[in-house]
Here is the input.
Amino acid sequence: MEPCPLNIAYGEDVFNEKAMREYLAKDTVETLLHTMNDRAPLDPSIANEVAHALKQWAMQRGATHFTHWFQPLTGTTAEKHDAFFEPVGTAETIARFSGKNLIMGEPDASSFPSGGLRCTFEARGYTAWDVTSPAFVKRHANGATLCIPTVFCSYTGEVLDKKTPLLRSMQAMDRAVRKLMACFGEPDGHAVITLGAEQEYFLVDKALYLKRPDLMQCGRTLFGAPPARNQQLEDHYFGSIKPRVLTFMEEVEQELWRLGIPAKTRHNEAAPAQFELAPMFEELNLAVDHNMLVMETLRNVADRHGLVCLLHEKPFAGVNGSGKHNNWSVAYNGKNLLDPGKNPQDNAIFLSVLASVIRAIDLHADVLRASTAHFGNDHRLGALEAPPAIISIFLGDELTEVIQHIEQGEAMEGNGKRGKLRVGVDTLPPIPRDTSDRNRTSPFAFTGNKFEFRAPGSSQNCSGVCMVLNTIVADSINFIADAIAQLPKDAFHEGLEAILQRIIREHSRVIFNGDGYSAAWVEEAQKRGLPNLRTVPEALAVLLTEKNLNLFSKQGVLHPTEMRSRYDVFFAEYARKVRLEGKVALETARTILEPAVISELGVLAKKLHYTQTVGLTAGVKTLTNKATIIGAGLDELSTGCATLECALTADEQAILSAMTALRTTADQLETIIGDEHWPLPKYRDLLQIH
Ligand code: ADP
Ligand code: MG
Here is the structure.
């Protein structure tokens, strides 16, 4: 490999293998690597030595504090810093960081949502080191903090975070894949789930942002008429990146590279002021942690550049929203199982995993959709270049043809040959790795050697989404493996073919290669019996069905009490967000917009009065008309405020409808009120970065 020509401090702030070898004894390094790579239990006897080394290493990078870095159910990351320094005697300190500090922490984190898993009198949760994700140092203006990735549980062992179920779901996949691979006579090994999370975001100028209480408090605009020029010219996507934005991106990348985060691709997205950052894929747990750091870094660096990074799924109505494409795959002993491969054995394994995914998505489309249930995403899914809330799979023409032939058990024309495709004996025709013309309207697309799940929202933690994906696929891989295990040796391939055929016949309704944006698909999907869960409450409700409670408990990922607590937490979060937005909309309309309309009306009335007083007739009609329209708009605005105020004492649906009506009135007024009187920065300015 060529050395990197740039002077990049790649991975400098990660306690990686190189750092371990520098700071730890050889035996300790081996023990620690064994724990990290083979997911072996941590040997407590090395904890003190590792802690000491970590402290030395971090202090050399300017760290004064350490924190257990965890991912509570709020969907963000949490940290409570403790200084390394402990006083000894008078006015003296020593730096101390013990094995105990490293392995376990007790943040008094009683304010994090637990969905009733903890009562306040026993509110303490504890954090425990997740050895599979390396420690790192976060630098800030005046120092640095050693971050130890951890899981967060209650004292009675229930999970309170997003990471623990993710790790459990990876174990479920590992068990299932190993079982399947044994059926194919593959050597024992490990399954590694891989994730490449493409992150979309908007940038807005900070000075304008500070004049928008809606953006500041809700992360999205609650008012705003679309500008004449939005994205219709399609000139932003992949366009040349403005110097100010490029400088920002370069700084983001440098920070990420220091943290060993392989940020690779950067480009303008479809909407004006929208961008994307895509890293190289990594092992799932690490990729999730890294995506959390990507979001944090984007926000922090933007701030230093007089910009604000909006990670909300739909900051602006009428232009594209932001998603987070989760590129997901599974490898075994270093081989990607979703790569069709070049020989019949690899093809057979590929088809078995593919059939498992098809079965999983068909049986559990509801809970997969629920994993993307997030208030911001409700505004995005099904609108402007975002997949609909209906979960379906896109396979592409070539693979669909293969699948159809297995389904029908008929002759096929693949590779230019006629004849029946015999699974495990014949070689599959080449399946292209689509990069250009693949179907962007599909929520779950096969892209040649991985699936790209496009429904997740840009601000979501990938762990919930991938945890569900792992769990449902593990369940189906187990199902297939159990069936294959029954096959007689001498009829293995015929038997396998029959199993695949049965699965495809039962579940191919979830495959859809057409236009996911079209109204016809909504109708067709309904005919096929596919769920269309349009809103967060509809989607979350499926977490509580007997079927899903059993599934997660059977796979050892979430106990029914943990599932119920998650439902409670997510629903409460949704309800709180709706109410908050309702209040902000009301306050903004009453205290900012209404006064502006009144003053415009006042100015017009005065001008009309003068005009008439001096005996002019020309212009009177226009002034009268305009004043009448604005006056009517003012009345409507005021009625809209009253309705919203009333709705705020009712349910979420009432609040949302009242907000929509109020917005329609306000946005119409925005298009007729004079620019100098309109108090909020407009879309045309917000969506431009100079
Ligand atoms: P796009 O055209 O969507 O940008 P890319 O081929 O560049 O497609 O891949 C997008 C993302 O998919 C990247 O983050 C890439 O690293 C990731 N990716 C590629 N292969 C895998 C894999 N086997 N597992 C998970 N993610 C993968
Ligand atoms: Mg993509």
Remarks:
- The mean pLDDT is 91.
